[in-house]
Amino acid sequence: MPARKKNKARARRRASATAPTTTNPAPPDAIVNLSRALAAVARHLPNPMDESTDFFRSFTAPYPARASIDAATFHQALNVGRRYGIDLSSADNFFTNAGDADNWGEDARGFQLLEKVMRATLTDLSVAFARADGVFRVRMWLFGRTDDGWLVGLRSTITET
Q1: How many angstroms separate the CA atoms of 161 and 143, rounded?
Q2: Which residue positions in the chain have pLDDT lower than 50?
Q3: What is the SS3 assignment for 144?
Q4: Are 152 and 117 in contact (CB under 8 A)?
Q5: Measuring CA to CA, which residue among 87, 35, 91, 90 is closest to residue 61?
Q6: Of 126, 120, 119, 129, the residue nearest 151 (C-alpha)
Q7: Phi/psi class of residue 7: alpha, beta or left (left: φ > 0; alpha: ψ in -120 to 50)?
Q8: How far apart are CA 88 and CA 4, in angstroms?
Q9: Residue 80 lies in a domain
């Protein structure tokens, strides 16, 4: 009589059932719509902080409503790896530079509109970078915060040489 084969599918099911899961809640529809609206405004706008032509994509992340925005809590909220340091600053300089028509021509009007929309809907507008030794493609976030604590904004990648 042939030996019985082990059921590998059952073993895989058990392994995945015990795997850790993330507990991030799904964003409310209004938060999703806002992030999509920001992406629509920024569509075709190149990242002015980049040496190449990288564009923006929307993102959302839950954040404690009363917590201050600092590098440590941002690092944790976006699940950035430990090897990366977070450089966090106000978005004022970003918008001043990107909205300068002498430097950015027609794109400046797009960034001026983006700034108006973000300032009208979000607070604490900020720019964050995740940097690490030997990493030349640096993640960047341009974001603000909703009244209920969600981080909403745009993410991109910049090349630093």
Answers
A1: 24
A2: 11-21
A3: strand
A4: no
A5: 35
A6: 126
A7: beta
A8: 59
A9: yes
Is residue 110, in this structure, part of any structural domain at all?
A: yes
Matching residue, tokens 């690092």? 75
Residues 6+ apart with CB under 8 A from 12: none
87 closest CA partner among 139, 50, 124 = 139
The number of folded domains in the chain is 1
Residue-wise pLDDT for 124-148, tens only, equals 999 999 999 988 889 999 999 999 8
Cα dihedral 32, 128, 111, 144, rounded to 10, equals 40
pTM over 0.85: no
pLDDT of residue 23: 64
CATH number at residue 44: 3.40.1460.10
